[in-house]
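Weekly puzzle thread! Below is a chain. First person to post its structure in token form gets bragging rights.
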Amino acid sequence: SSTSNSAVNTISDYEEGTWTPSLNAFAGTPTFVSPVYTKIGRIVYANVRIVLDGTGDSDQFRVDGLPFTSADVLSTEGGFVTYSNSTETNIYVLVFQNDTSFGLYETSGGTVTYNEIGANKQIRISVIYRTS
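Winning reply:
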């Protein structure tokens, strides 16, 4: 409830839209449901539901195609899994520095693979990051 229209009290950039995700090095055909984002200033909130097909793949679960390039700084930008019917638990999301991608990681720091999520499983992911 600002009464002043000074620069510190206004939003200089607001945008909503859809984005086009893809899975890096995934051999199958994933389905992407509702890939949407909101950008306020330099902060981006993006989410997507990903359904894997029956293809097995031992590569890291990595999503490409975020709507904006992340900032070129080391930070704690990432996200969270809002739902998964996989048996893999405690999954962490890390947005890569100066990139349009993010990966999934285990609590031990190891990468989560497509096989670990599982064939014919789904995962819903939200990410929050700063743009450059």
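Puzzle host: Confirmed. Bonus trivia for everyone else. The radius of gyration is 16 Å.
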